[in-house]
Every structure is written in C-alpha cells, then in structure tokens.
Specification:
8 helices, ER-bound oxygenase mpaB/mpaB'/Rubber oxygenase catalytic domain-containing protein, MPAB/Lcp_cat_dom, disordered C terminus
C-alpha cells in the first residue's frame, strides 16, 4: 500500500526522501504529524480555489450522458467524497459543505449491477475480471522489496 502512496508522492512533486522510510501506519502517522505542524490553515484563496474546482468539475460531469446526474448532485458527491477523505476539520476550512450521500446509492447499485450483468452474460469477461482482481490482491500481498528486512 505504501509503495502506491510513494508513487503518488512522486507525481505530486514530493522528494523520495520524504516518503522513503514510510512502510507502515506508524511511519505514515509521523509524516502526517509533521505535515500538520507545518501546513497553514486554509485561507480565502484556498476556499475560492476549492469552490471553483468543484463547480467546474460538477458542471463538466453533469454534461456526461450516463449516469445522468445534475451538477448539484455531482457537487454533493464531490463534497461527500472530499469530506470523507480530508476529514471535517480541513473540509470546513476549505468551505466544503456537508452533503447527503443516500441519493447516490442507486448510482452505486447501477454500476455494480452493470458489472454483474457483464460478468453473467459474458463468462469469459467475468473470468478475466476475477483473474485481474486476484492478481491485484496477490500483488498487494507481496512485501515491499525496498523495505529494510523485507
């Protein structure tokens, strides 16, 4: 799991030295504490940027024919996802409103139902999907080769 986050860190421009020694939750918590201690609270510029990004994204997604959701529904989904990811404190600081998620359950069910339909009507594709999933799970179980003592 932490190999994945080191890769994401590189894509975001973090030096490898920042994430190189993180191999478990304890190391990640120590880095989070350091980041929390050195990161400023969101300001008005951050709130404006967040609002602009959410508005642009939700309006763009609303133009996608399927699933047919309104821009406000997409915005609620973005807000709910961001709050779950960032936590209430940071989300509040960025002006991300709390949003109900119950209305998205049909969307999730539709996606799961579509996947199930493909797997039932095309057994070969279903088997390929299962094998891909098994391979991903097995890869995640392999110890990080860059880790000392692994």
């Amino acid at each position: 799991m932490y190999r994945y986050w080191r890769h994401i860190g590189r894509l975001l421009g973090l030096e490898d030295a920042v994430t190189a020694r993180i191999h478990d939750h304890t190391g990640a918590a120590e880095l989070l504490d350091l980041l929390d201690a050195t990161t400023e609270r969101p300001d008005e510029a951050g709130r404006v940027l967040t609002a602009t990004l959410f508005a642009s994204t939700s309006e763009g997604l609303a133009r996608v024919p399927a699933p047919a959701l309104s821009a406000s529904a997409w915005r609620d989904l973005l807000c709910a996802t961001a709050r779950a990811s960032l936590g209430d404190g940071l989300a509040d600081g960025l002006g991300i409103q709390a949003a109900p998620v119950g209305e998205f359950l049909p969307l999730i069910a539709q996606g799961l139902g579509s996947a199930r339909h493909v797997h039932l009507t095309n057994p070969e594709e279903g088997e390929r999907a299962r094998q891909r999933h098994i391979a991903i799970r097995r890869q995640r179980m392999v110890p990080d080769r860059g880790r000392v003592g692994a």
